[in-house]
Amino acid sequence: MYEGPIQDLIDELGKLPGLGPKGAQRIAFHLLAAENAETNRLIGALTRVRDDVTFCAECGNVSADRLCRICSDARRDATKICVVEEPKDVLAIERTREFAGRYHVLGGALDPLSGIGPDQLRIRELLRRLGNQEDGVDVSEVIVATDPNTEGEATATYLVRMLKDFPGLSVTRLASGLPMGGDLEFADDLTLGRALSGRRVLV
Ligand SMILES: [Zn+2]
Question: What are the residue ranges of zinc fingers typed C4-type (predicted)?
Answer without folding.
Answer: 56-71
